[in-house]
C-alpha cells in the first residue's frame, strides 16, 4: 500500500523512491531496530531482490546485525561518490546519453575534482563550496553554471540517500547565467540574402532552420524517411539529433520527449523540399538530407564556412546559425502561435522558452506599430 512519506509498504521491508529516481530499501531486524541497505538501487526489482535475501537470512537464522559504528563509507570522497553516481545515473529511467556523460566527466575531472575530489562528502561545507566557486571558471560563466549545477545535483542525491545531512551547494543564482549572446531575429530580406549565398545543397538547410525552427543536430540527422510528402502538406518527423562525442558524430534521442515531434513545413517551401529530395538526397530511406560531400554527417565547420559569408553579405555578422531557430520561433509567435503551439513546434518540455519568443514577438509588434505611426507623420509633413 502506498504511503504519504513516499515509501511503499511490503510484507517485509519498505521501498522508498528518492528524488534521484533510485530506490532505497529498509527493514526491521529481529532486534526490532531499523536498518537500510548499504546502497541504493536502480530499480524496485533490484531492491526487492535484496530484501528477499535479507528475509531469507533471517528465517534461516543466518542474519547478523550490521556492525554498529563500522562505517566503511564514512570517509567516502566526493570523487568516489561522483564516479559511482555517474555510472548509475538515470534520467527518466534511462542512462545518461553519451554526450551528456562525457560533458559531466570533463566538468568533474577538470573543474571539480582538483579542488573537492579528495574531500569526504560528509566533511564538505558551504564555505568549501563558496571558496571553490569563487575561483572556478570565472571567465566562462556558462560552463561555470554547468559545473555548479552538476555538483549541486550530485550532492543532492547524496542528501536523498542520507549520506550527508544537508546539501552544502547553496549559492543563490549560481546555477543560472544570463545569455552572453542575444541577436535580433533575421528579417525576411536578410534571410533571403543568406540563402542566396549558400551552395545549392545547403540552401534548404538554412530555410528549414529558420522557417521550421530546427536545431543544427536535428537538421544534420534528417533523413529521407523523416520527410512525409502528402498532397496538401509536407511534414518533418523529428526523432533524433546528431551530436558530437569523443567517438565522432552520432545520432542520439532528442533532449526531451517533447523533442520527438512532427513539424509542418510552411507551404511556400514545399517545392524547395521536393526539389532537394530529387536533386540532393539519395534514394534510400536512410539517406541524409544534408550529408557531407563524401558521405556521413555534415561537419559544423563546413556549414559555417558558407554561412558566415552569407550573414556578412546580409549585414548580420552577429547572427549565429542557432539564431535562425530564434528567427523561426519569433515568426511563429508573430503569426499568432499560442504558447502551447510554440512549445510543441520547438520541441521544448516547458513553456519558458516559448514565453521568451512571445515577448520578442510583442517587442517587434511594438516596433511595427511605431513605424506605422511614422508613416502617418510623413504624410502629415507632406
UniProtKB/TrEMBL annotation:
GO terms for biological process: DNA integration; DNA recombination. Gene3D superfamilies: 1.10.150.130, Intergrase catalytic core. Residues 181-370 form the Tyr recombinase domain. Keywords: DNA integration, DNA recombination, DNA-binding. SUPFAM superfamilies: DNA breaking-rejoining enzymes. GO terms for molecular function: DNA binding. Coiled coil: none annotated. Pfam families: Integrase_N_phage, Phage_int_SAM_3, Phage_integrase. PROSITE patterns: CB, TYR_RECOMBINASE. Belongs to the 'phage' integrase family. This is Tyrosine-type recombinase/integrase.
Amino acid at each position: 500500500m502506498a504511503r504519504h512519506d513516499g515509501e511503499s509498504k511490503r510484507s517485509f521491508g519498505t521501498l522508498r523512491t528518492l528524488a534521484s529516481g533510485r530506490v532505497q530499501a529498509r527493514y526491521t531486524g529481529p532486534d526490532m531496530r531499523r536498518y537500510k541497505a548499504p546502497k541504493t538501487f536502480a530499480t524496485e526489482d533490484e531492491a526487492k531482490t535484496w530484501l528477499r535475501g535479507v528475509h531469507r537470512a533471517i528465517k534461516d537464522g543466518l542474519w547478523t546485525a550490521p556492525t554498529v559504528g563500522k562505517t566503511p563509507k564514512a570517509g567516502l570522497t566526493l570523487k568516489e561518490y561522483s564516479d559511482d553516481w555517474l555510472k548509475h545515473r538515470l534520467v527518466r529511467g534511462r542512462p545518461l546519453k553519451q554526450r551528456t556523460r562525457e560533458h559531466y566527466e570533463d566538468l568533474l575531472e577538470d573543474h571539480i575534482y582538483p579542488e573537492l575530489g579528495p574531500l569526504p562528502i560528509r566533511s564538505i561545507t558551504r564555505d568549501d563550496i563558496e571558496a571553490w566557486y569563487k575561483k572556478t571558471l570565472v571567465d566562462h560563466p556558462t560552463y561555470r553554471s554547468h559545473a555548479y549545477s552538476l555538483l549541486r545535483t550530485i550532492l543532492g542525491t547524496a542528501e536523498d540517500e542520507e549520506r550527508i545531512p544537508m546539501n552544502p551547494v547553496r549559492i543563490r543564482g549560481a546555477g543560472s547565467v544570463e545569455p552572453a549572446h542575444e541577436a535580433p531575429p533575421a528579417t525576411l530580406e536578410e534571410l533571403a540574402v543568406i540563402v542566396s549565398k549558400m551552395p545549392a545543397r545547403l540552401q534548404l538547410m538554412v530555410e528549414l532552420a529558420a522557417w521550421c525552427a530546427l536545431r543544427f543536430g536535428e537538421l544534420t540527422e534528417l533523413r529521407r524517411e523523416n520527410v512525409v510528402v502528402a498532397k496538401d502538406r509536407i511534414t518533418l518527423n523529428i526523432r533524433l539529433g546528431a551530436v558530437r562525442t569523443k567517438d565522432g558524430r552520432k545520432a542520439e534521442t532528442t533532449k526531451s520527449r517533447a523533442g520527438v515531434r512532427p513539424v509542418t513545413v510552411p507551404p511556400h517551401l514545399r517545392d524547395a523540399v521536393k526539389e532537394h529530395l530529387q536533386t540532393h538526397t539519395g534514394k534510400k530511406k536512410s539517406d541524409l538530407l544534408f550529408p557531407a560531400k563524401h558521405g556521413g554527417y555534415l561537419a559544423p565547420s563546413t556549414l559555417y564556412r558558407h554561412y558566415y559569408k552569407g550573414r556578412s553579405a546580409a549585414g548580420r555578422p552577429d547572427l549565429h546559425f542557432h539564431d535562425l531557430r530564434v528567427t523561426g520561433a519569433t515568426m511563429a509567435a508573430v503569426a499568432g502561435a499560442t504558447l502551447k503551439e510554440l512549445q510543441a513546434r520547438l520541441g521544448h518540455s516547458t513553456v519558458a522558452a516559448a514565453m521568451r519568443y512571445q515577448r520578442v514577438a510583442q517587442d517587434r509588434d511594438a516596433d511595427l506599430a511605431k513605424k506605422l505611426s511614422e508613416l502617418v507623420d510623413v504624410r502629415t509633413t507632406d
